[in-house]
Write a structure and sequence with these properties.
It contains 17 helices and 24 strands. By secondary structure, the chain is of the alpha+beta class. The protein has three domains: about 210 residues, no CATH class; about 180 residues, no CATH class; about 190 residues, Beta-galactosidase, Chain A, domain 5 (Distorted Sandwich), CATH 2.70.98. It has a five-stranded antiparallel β-sheet, with no helix packed on it. The protein has a five-stranded antiparallel β-sheet with strand order 10-11-12-13-14, covered by helices on one side. A two-stranded antiparallel ribbon has the order 1-2. Helix 15 runs parallel beside helix 16. The protein starts with 5 loop residues before the first strand and ends with a strand.
Length: about 700
């Protein structure tokens, strides 16, 4: 940054930034108290989509709510493997393995006497700090070992704020404290993250998820605030910030004409939330119409006909699925005036690269009599299949297999699901917490792989028997949003198209068999096929086998897929016998990123030490396609799959017969097996398995 004066816009006043001290010593406090409000003149947000009287917060464990409330209000967060430690300007990092930075800056003066500011720019695990004085397009990351930009991003998603609101609904004693905490954190963020400056404006996906969570929390807290804590000045500042979030998303859409992914879908969802809550005007009408238009387009691009997701990652399927189900519910429950306003928006002055279609060419329709948005039936059917895909791939313990990447990404986190450990148990379990002595004595360990809350969303949107047992808070939340149920017209499963290449069988001279005891009646086992997604499941109450034959992902770009073709997860009689190792971490340690997505980390035959698909230098979110995986035979209790890459032809046959599962490997070249000794059940979390 040059030494000359920079002009910054913070959303409610233009200031001149001459020195760090002028910025960090509470300058905005003067503007808040003086009543100098917004250059935007954005109307205060009065739209509400969540009637808190209809939320079933009794589904939340009160003990867990009390614990998380205390942690959040003390500014202790367990994000991406950090452990429940405090993030402040003077907090000391315990490091990521041997990588520790000491980059603390002087603590700014708090805007409030009873509030300690959060350091929004810091990876409080490694201690590395980005600067709020750096323009967002100039922020660099992935260039400092151990420094993880995802940690300040994850914190700044504000996913704990809707939880604080829900806990206040559940527990009357928490209301006033939580409303104040919400107000203080929002203003703290706005003051210390001026629009376009610092780490939290780099990625539009983060801006979009943050905006949606801010709005959800605001909607609930406004209904709870009988104390006048959220005064008119705060409401004005909040509305201005939400408007700025929307503008920033549109000006920085993560759109690629060749492939769009979960980032762009997040942009669209965030934009719909912003435009739904802001008042109607010519600008927000266009934002809303564009958002619904693109939501429908991305459903067709990013979700297969069978309900799986084109990222080839079961965990990213959840992230993108949450974006779809929550945003669809919001659109279904839009206010009458919002919906009718879409009849007369104009495309003439739309200046963004992605076109806004006129109403006559939109993929959605407006039912004027009912004042409802009508989605295409294929969209509704595919949304149902997203939920059914999850229902089918979960184990008897409600966890999903980790095929492809897992970055613990979520749109909203409402119902806490996990278990309590002691501090010593947490340190003994997780290598990433081994040296962390700053955690509380009791440790809440979130179960990131549990899918019950996600499935409950579909119970709220579809009156289908298959989702009935999933009745967490999310069900009532979706019902409050959508105010209607959707009807499904196509529940069919896709058939497998076999590909048989008998000519290669002659060379399959190397063979090995692995056997497991099934411990269930084979007649009770169901075979479920997802040929678009490349996932095949045999399951019963006691037996579960999921086989990975996924495409490379992102239209063969391999952004979030692994070299895990023909690998499998096996769960028998309540125990995991074979588990995918997960992902552990991304940019802070590139070698670890590549190790966890390598062929050698997965339970597949290793042939000539070759990777199934090649890594690309300096590209941690891409693979060079070398393999082809397909089904060559199957029946009710068996499946045979083939994998070809680099002159290697590998056939793997899974067969259930009587009380035995056999896995038979045949190959045209010698192969071996390698045991991988690490397991990650969520981003940043790592366990040594022997």
């Amino acid at each position: 940054m040059k030494k000359i004066t920079k002009r910054l816009k913070v959303g409610f006043e233009e200031i001149y930034w001459k020195t760090k001290d002028k910025f960090v010593n509470g300058i905005v406090k003067k503007y808040i108290s003086s009543g100098k409000i917004a250059t935007h003149n954005v109307p205060i947000i009065n739209n509400s989509y969540v009637d808190i009287s209809k939320l079933d917060t009794s589904k939340i464990d009160k003990k867990v709510a009390r614990y998380l409330s205390a942690m959040y209000c003390e500014h202790r967060f367990d994000l991406l493997g950090t452990g429940w430690v405090k993030n402040s300007y003077d907090s000391i990092a315990y490091g990521l393995f041997d990588y520790v930075y000491n980059m603390n800056i002087p603590k700014p003066k708090s805007l409030f006497d009873d509030y300690e500011p959060i350091d929004w720019q810091k990876d409080y695990k490694s201690g590395y700090r980005w600067s709020e004085k750096t323009w967002y397009k100039d922020i660099k990351y992935g260039n400092k070992k151990g420094a993880d930009i995802k940690i300040p991003w994850e914190l700044s998603r504000f996913q704990h704020l809707p939880q604080l609101a829900l806990f206040a609904i559940l527990d009357e004693d928490l209301k006033q404290t939580h409303i104040k905490e919400f107000k203080h954190e929002i203003l703290d963020f706005i003051v210390n993250n001026p629009l376009g400056w610092g780490v939290n404006w780099v990625c539009s996906m983060e801006v979009a998820i943050r905006g949606a969570n801010m709005l959800l929390a605001y909607d609930m807290f406004i209904q709870l605030d009988k104390f006048g804590i959220l005064d008119e000045q705060f409401k004005q500042i909040f509305a201005n910030s939400i408007y700025e979030h929307g503008k920033h998303i549109l000006n920085n859409l993560e759109y690629n004409p060749h492939v769009t992914n979960n980032h762009y879908l997040s942009n669209i969802s965030g934009l719909i939330f912003v435009s739904a809550y802001l008042d109607i005007n010519d600008e927000t009408k266009k934002w809303l119409a564009f958002g619904i238009q693109e939501l429908i387009k991305e459903m067709e691009k990013q979700f297969y006909e069978d309900g799986g997701n084109f990222e080839s990652s079961t965990c990213y399927h959840r992230l993108s699925g949450e974006l779809m189900v929550y945003t669809t519910a919001l659109v279904l429950g839009l206010s009458k005036d919002k919906i009718l306003s879409l009849q007369n928006y104009s495309c003439d002055d739309w200046k963004y690269r992605q076109k806004l279609l006129p109403l006559s060419k939109q993929p959605f329709r407006i039912d004027v009599n009912e004042a409802k948005i009508q989605f295409p039936q294929w969209f509704i059917d595919r949304l149902f299949k997203i939920g059914r895909f999850v229902l089918d791939i979960i184990k008897p313990n409600f966890e999903i297999p980790q095929f492809g990447d897992n970055d613990s990404g979520r749109f909203f986190k409402l119902t806490p699901i996990g278990s309590f450990l002691s501090r010593e148990e947490a340190k003994e379990t997780y290598l990433n917490l081994k040296n962390n002595d700053r955690m509380p004595e009791i440790f809440w360990d979130e179960n990131i792989l549990d899918q019950r809350a996600f499935l409950s969303c579909f119970a709220g949107l579809f009156d289908e028997q298959c989702f009935k047992e999933f009745d967490t808070l999310e069900k009532s939340f979706i019902e409050a949003f959508a105010k209607t149920k959707l009807s499904v017209s196509d529940k069919t499963y896709k058939a497998i198209n076999l590909e048989i290449r008998q000519k290669n069988d002659i060379n399959l001279i190397y063979e090995n068999t692995i056997a497991y005891k099934v411990e269930d009646d084979a007649k009770e086992i169901t075979f479920i096929k997802y040929p678009d997604s490349g996932v095949y499941i045999f399951k019963s109450k006691k037996f579960y086998l999921a086989i990975c034959a996924t495409p490379l992902g992102q239209n063969n770009r391999g952004g979030h897929t692994h070299n895990d073709k023909l690998s499998y997860e096996l769960f028998i009689n309540g125990k995991d016998l074979c588990k995918d190792p997960g992902s552990f971490i991304y940019t802070p340690i590139p070698e670890m990123r590549n190790l966890f997505r390598s062929t050698f980390a997965h339970n597949v035959p290793i042939v000539m030490d070759e990777e199934q698909n090649d890594f690309i230098k300096n590209r941690l979110f891409a693979l060079k396609k070398r393999s082809k995986c397909y089904v060559c035979d199957y029946g009710n209790l068996f499946i045979e799959l083939c994998l070809e890459y680099k002159g290697i032809f590998l056939k793997r046959r899974f067969k259930i017969e009587g009380d035995k599962l056999t896995v038979i490997d045949k190959c045209n070249k010698p192969f071996s097996y390698k045991k991988f000794n690490f397991y990650s059940n969520g981003y940043g979390k790592i366990i040594k398995t022997n």
